[in-house]
Amino acid sequence: MIQKKICMLGSYAVGKTSLVRQFVTSKFSDQYLTTVGVKIDRKAVNINGHDVRMMLWDLHGEDGYQQVHASYLRGMAGYLLVADGTRPESMETVHKLHQRAVETVGSVPFILLVNKLDLVDEWAISDASLDELKSDGWNVQTTSAKTGERVNESFAELARQMLAVS
Amino acid sequence: MHDVVFGQYLEASCMSSASNDRPASTPRRAVPRGAEAMQELRRLLVQPEQHRLDDLEEQVEHISVDAEKLSQILPEAVRRGSQRDHHLAKALAPTLTDAFQDSIRRNPQGLVDVIAPIMGPAIRRSIRQAISSMVESLNQTLEHSFSWKGLQWRMEAMRTGKPFAEVVLLHTLIYRIEQVLLIHRDSGLLLAQASTSADREKDADLVSGMLTAIRDFVRDSFGGNSADMLDAMQVGDRTVWVEDGPEAVLAVAFRGYPPQELRERLIETLEQIHVDYREPLASFAGDDTAMQPAEELLEPLLVAEYRATNRRKGLSVGRIIGWAIPLLLIGAIGWWLFQLVQDRYWTRRLSTALDLPPSVQLSYDHGTVTITGEARHEWLERVSERTSRFPQIQHWDWAQVKDRDSDWLQFLKQLRDEPGVVVTESGRDSAGYFVRGLRDPLARDPEKLLANQTAVQDGVRMEFAPYECPDDAFETWRATAALQPPHGAEIRVAEGKLLLVGTAPIEFVSRARTLAELTLPQRSTDETQLTITYPAWQQWLDVVRELAGVEIVSAEIRDDEYFFEGKRDPLVHDPHQLLDGPAVDRSKLHLQWQSYYCLDESFVRQRLDAAIKLPSTVWVDYQGGKLTFTGAASHGWTKYAQEKLSNTSGLPAFDLSQVREPESVRKPSLREQLSAIVIEAGREDTYVLSASKQQLDDAAQVIRQIIAVAERNRVQVRIEVRGRGVASPGDATGELLGTNWAEQVTGHLIDRGIPTRWLRPIAERSTAEQRTTSSQTPPRSVTFHIVNDGH
Ligand SMILES: Nc1nc2c(ncn2[C@@H]2O[C@H](COP(=O)(O)OP(=O)(O)O)[C@@H](O)[C@H]2O)c(=O)[nH]1
Ligand SMILES: [Mg+2]
Fold first, then answer.
1. Can you spell out the DSSP letters for B572-592?
2. Does A1 contact chain B (CB < 8 Å)?
3. Which one of the ligands is nearest to A12 CA?
4. Helix axes B36-63, B2-19, angle to 10 degrees
5. If one looks up domain B670-788 in CATH, what number appears?
6. Do the domains B319-403 and B601-660 sit in the same CATH topology, yes or no?
7. Which residue segment(s) compose the domain that A45 sits in?
8. What pLDDT does B220 receive?
9. CATH class of B121-306
């Protein structure tokens, strides 16, 4: 059995908890409950005949009051950076957290999920800025925890990349 | 020096052997013959040295070996060298030290990983020794507590070499280990596990992750030193012990109280794992297959220990003491330590959680939080709400903290309770306390209330807008102030009505009704306990009753309206003009008058005067309900009068028969008649003579008539009764006598029915002039004179 620690990183209320819930239980709730500290979930996926158990560390959102401590990030094999398409400032947090992740565990696979795709009309993050990241080699996906669009695929893609590394 | 030479030779020979593979012949044989003399000389000069050089040459030849051979020889050489003496070690030490330090500097973790399993047991051993010496001293305190069991344990202690107290400790414990987790230190991923139930196994990976996260959290929260890792946790009645290794963490979950030994076993197991699985641990990237065999090492940890079933043979005092004292002592120490940690933890946690201001101190003791110092009320309130967040705390002691605002709140409460004062806003800002609200002008002045509250007097700002308090008490005050109830009446506002009690005049009552209607919610009065009086009415009736020319037929009050029926002479004006003072409300007065003729003399005379003009010679006397005309008048006038009077209504019966023809008599005026009367007194007499009786009667008759006229005309007159005594100048007796005469005559007149107030007896002053003028008047006499009365 292969296990991987994956951290969900992003500003508060971008949908980290919702994405994990959608991925693990295929459910979505409009209710917003701040994640305090960390919540750990798990889901097993099969990648090319390998069973991979993803241990998903859903961290509390990064904001002015709470900082994601580096110690939570130790030992992770990959991470999902989550931004809220309707909140441009959530991208800044993504960069900050990405930097912290690199400082803590070095370079491991990650995917940027720009979430709330169902609200794409209200999006305030330009395609151009996402294209720029892509050209820097970032894997950028747009997801919706609400409709489930591209959620499973994105988690699976991360799992694939992690397997390729090890 | 010696070393250097040796070194050069060594070097040279090595080089030569490198160029010429075959071992070289001795140097002596290589020297040519011609040089023999030189050789001999050398032998002679430096023979001893030559020998040594030869020796060395031989040695060097033996040493000449290659690296390959050296590698075979070196270990043996080192072994032998170190067996012989310490020279080798000494020579190598600096190099080794340098190398070692360099290696550590480059890869410290490597050293730690290698050394931890080795050092661990050694360190542990020394700690155990330290603990056991402590237990040993405890042991001494327990020395005298013995029982059968105690003795057994004592024997066990002797047998095993453990201190007695430790044995006791071991025997009293029961525990059961339910799960053992081996967790990858960095990622929190589960490496291997052992568990007493399959159920528990399922979630072991989540538990591992959470456990790691919690420990990360605790470390982050309580300081970043990784040596301070959380190594025990209480979850319900389960305890988790965690032991840290360089790569992996070992966690055991158990119930009960395992011996400290378990810790050691954990550490030993963890160290074993680190030794056995060094490679897979170091390269662990999620695949736990290589770690699975480690479960064999974990399983032995799933132990349970139960208290030996002791056959109770009754509790001897010794046994109880043998058990109780050590347990109590150990419990007490443990408890004390636990409390110490607990107290500090809670004190710190609560201090931050409750946002403790500097003026407040907080202490935690045995589940009780005591708060001392002083604080703002606001803070106290906020905190007491938050206490529910700490269900672990059984008791909060607030009694010792002073509420800085308590005096203020006390004052506010007083203000709120104060009738007629409404507090709409209160609080504290940078300038101090303030309160705003409404105040009935009749309410007590809040400033005065404040004056009693010395503690908060300063800096309280108060703003009160006037308003009318609708409370009954205030309505009562206002009504009382407005109505000023008369003596005997009381008013009170109750349930929005004006309650009137007692006795009160209608004027007051009607004002009260108006007030009630205008100002009170119920707009009405309650008069069930009220007796209404009508003083103005009564007074008016009294006046009317006394009035001449008016007669009351009936007078009554119905529904506060006055119904009056009366008779009135046409000569009398409408009597309500007579009213002064509290007037009867005219709109409520219903008067009904019938005309009638009043036969009082004044009415009769007025009607008479209006009807007929009397000649000066005719007098009318009204007596016994009849008008009697006397005097002189022409017959014609008498006839005219007869007719006129008969046609005039409102006159009584009349008699004109005594009017005679004018020539027959001219009746003197009353004044003339009066002054014509002289009452004489004899020279020697002291009393008025009986002969004067006729004159006295006449005088009385005339005076009566004068009085009637005076009364009718409302003229104030007096009849002077002048007595004259002896007319000798300066004779006082004469004047005295005159007074006497006058008084005597006055008495006679009073006897004849003349009211005293009309009469004034005086002595006639006998001046010379008078004497001459009154020469005809007798020397002793009484005469009468009308005078206007001054007062
Ligand atoms: N419309 C929409 N709402 C979302 C989506 N994902 C999350 N939310 C909502 O955003 C809020 C925050 O979500 P949550 O998962 O708790 O965010 P977290 O703080 O990053 O864990 C919640 O009210 C969610 O219902 C999404 O894809 N679409
Ligand atoms: Mg969340």
1. SPPGGGG--SS---GGGEEEE
2. yes
3. 1
4. 80
5. 3.30.1330.60
6. yes
7. 2-165
8. 72
9. alpha beta
**Least Cα separation, residue A34 to chain B (angstroms):** 17
Residue extents of the structural domains in chain B:
2-64, 121-306, 319-403, 535-595, 601-660, 670-788
Determine the distance from the C-alpha atom of residue B688 to the mean position of all C-alpha atoms in its chain, rounded to a whole number. 102
According to the model, what pLDDT value does residue B18 have? 40
Q: Is A116 on the interface with B (CB under 8 A)?
A: no
Residues of B in contact with A4 (CB under 8 A): 189, 286
Atom of ligand 1 nearest to the CA of A21: 15
User: For the domain that residue A31 is a member of, what is the CATH number?
Assistant: 3.40.50.300
Ligand number, closest to the Cα atom of A60: 2
CA of A18 to the centre of ligand 1 (A): 6
The count of residues in chain A is: 166
CA-angle at B743, arms to B737 and B744, nearest 5°: 90
A25-29 long-range CB contacts below 8 Å, 24 or more apart? A26/A148, A28/A145, A28/A146, A28/A147, A28/A148
Take residue B242 and report the two structure tokens written for it. Answer: 């965690």
Question: Which residues in chain B show pLDDT less than 70?
Answer: 1-34, 43, 60-67, 108-150, 164-173, 222-229, 237, 305-323, 454-458, 575-583, 662-668, 681-691, 726-733, 765-779, 790-791
Whether A75 and B210 lie within 8 Å, measured CB to CB: no
Determine the distance separating the centroid of ligand 1 and the alpha carbon of A34, expressed in angstroms: 10
Residues (pLDDT < 70) of chain A are 32-37, 61-66, 166
Report d(CA A82, CA A9) in Å as an integer: 6
Using an 8 Å CB-CB cutoff, list chain A residues near B206: 40-42, 55
Distance (Å, whole) CA B433 – CA B427: 6
Ligand nearest to the CA of A18: 1
Locate the chain A residue with the closest alpha carbon to B184: A75
Reported as type and span, the H/E element at residue B322 is helix B317-353
Nearest Cβ partner for B189 among A55, A69, A166: A55
Q: Tokens standing for B31?
A: 């020297």
Pairing of strands B175-184, B248-256: antiparallel
With CB atoms and an 8 Å threshold, state whether A4 touches B205.
no
Q: What DSSP line would sit under B115-183, residue for residue?
A: HHHHHHHHHHHHHHHHHHHHHHHHHHHHTT---HHHHHHHHHHHHH---HHHHHHHHT--EEEEEEEEE
User: What was the pLDDT predicted at B420?
Assistant: 83
pLDDT at A54: 94
**CATH number 3.30.70 given to B319-403:** no
The count of structural domains within chain A is: 1
Q: Which atom of ligand 1 is nearest to A61's Cα?
A: 19
Residues of B in contact with A3 (CB under 8 A): 189-190, 205, 286-288
Are B737 and B775 within 8 A, CB to CB?
Answer: no
User: Which ipTM was obtained for this model?
Assistant: 0.86
Tens digit of each residue's pLDDT (9 = 90 or more) over B119-138? 555 555 555 555 544 554 45
CA distance B281 to B258: 29
Ligand 1 atom nearest the C-alpha of A14 is 20
A3–B190 C-beta distance less than 8 A? yes
Q: What is the pLDDT of residue B766?
A: 58
CA of A28 to the centre of ligand 1 (A): 9
- Which DSSP letter does residue B287 get? B
Residues of chain B positioned with their CB less than 8 A from the CB of A37: 213, 217
What residues pack around ion ligand 2 (CB closer than 5 A)?
A 17, 35
The pLDDT value recorded for residue B24 is 44
Q: What is the CATH number of domain B601-660?
A: 3.30.1340
> In the block, which residue shows the tokens 């006058």?
B742
A67-80 pLDDT, tens per residue? Answer: 777 888 989 999 99
Locate A14 and state its tokens.
Answer: 């971008």
Task: Please say whether the dihedral angle defined by the alpha carbons of residues A70, A73, A79 and A83, taken in this order, is positive or negative.
Answer: negative
